[in-house]
Amino acid sequence: MIKLRLLSLISCVILPLFNAGCGSDEDVHAHQGEGGSAGVGGGGGAAKATFFVTSDTSATADLGGLQGADARCQRLAVAAGLGAHTFQAYLSAEQDPDDASKTVDARDRIGSGPWYNSKGVLLAQDLTALHALSGDAELFLDENGNKINGQWQDSPTPNEHDILTGSAADGTLVAGKTCADWTSDAADAAAQVGHSDGLGPSMNGAPPYNSWNSVHESGSCGDTAPKGGAGRLYCFAID
After folding, report:
1. β-bridge pairing 87-89 and 162-164
2. N or C: where does the chain have the smaller number of CB atoms within 10 Å of the terminal CB?
3. Torsion sign across C-alpha atoms 203, 207, 210, 211
4. Are 66 and 180 in contact, with CB atoms under 8 Å apart?
5. DSSP character at residue 96
6. How many CB atoms within 10 Å of residue 133?
7. Do residues 220 and 60 lie in contact, with contact meaning Cβ atoms separated by under 8 Å?
8. Which tens digits make up the pLDDT trace of 52-80?
9. Nearest alpha carbon to residue 117 among 239, 237, 238
10. 3-state secondary structure of 236
């Protein structure tokens, strides 16, 4: 018995030199429990996302009106796990669906912020900060965290950075540039669009190319592709 005790004592002195120990199983489990595994309980960007660019596209600017556009935003948000919020499209219109005597400014239908993208990165704290932004491919992501094809370096093709807004840079209506309040696919009309990446040809980031919400007219209401579009929308959580 004495020999066994001596052997045990010697092992406790020598084995630590080889990164072994003499603690009990309870000690080992206690140390393993400290800190937990990486990423567990982190929440991720989706948990706080309140803004995204639509991943889906539309060949025309006939979106079914504001209601159809809002439903599209909400559907994509739910599919991406962002459905805890109510999302609406950043679109202006010449007639309020609830009061034909009033116009609609996109800035008035998206809440007051703050807004975070689908990776949990702050887009803007409030409306003032939002409308002072330039487009940015790393910030203006779709609901799945993907960048939108644009003029940024090594971007895939085709260019799809033209986002439908019908709005001026301050978020107010541009009359005649809403494709009949997002119900028309007419070839002789167009919508106002912004650049999600804030870039023009040859990665030109100077005004007006840098505006995320108001750069130029689309090709037409009947075809959103010319000039670099795909009928995408901006979607914001209003709550």
Report:
1. unpaired
2. N
3. negative
4. no
5. B
6. 16
7. no
8. 999 999 999 999 999 999 999 999 999 99
9. 237
10. strand
Nearest to 222 by CA among 189, 194, 193: 189
Tell me the two tokens of residue 88: 């609406």
- pLDDT digits over 137-154, tens only? 999 999 999 999 999 999
pLDDT in tens, 17-28: 434 333 333 332
81-110, pLDDT tens digit by residue?
A: 997 899 999 999 999 999 999 999 999 999
The answer to whether the CB of 54 falls within 8 A of the CB of 235 is yes
- Specify the pTM: 0.82
CA 188 to mean position of chain CA atoms? 31
Name residue, tokens 């992501």.
141
Take residue 208 and report the two structure tokens written for it: 């007006």
Q: Which two tokens stand for residue 11?
A: 């092992």
Structure tokens at 217: 């007219």
End-to-end CA distance of the chain: 73
CB atoms within 10 A of CB 38: 6
CATH code for the part of the protein at 45-239? 3.10.100.10
3-state secondary structure of 57: coil
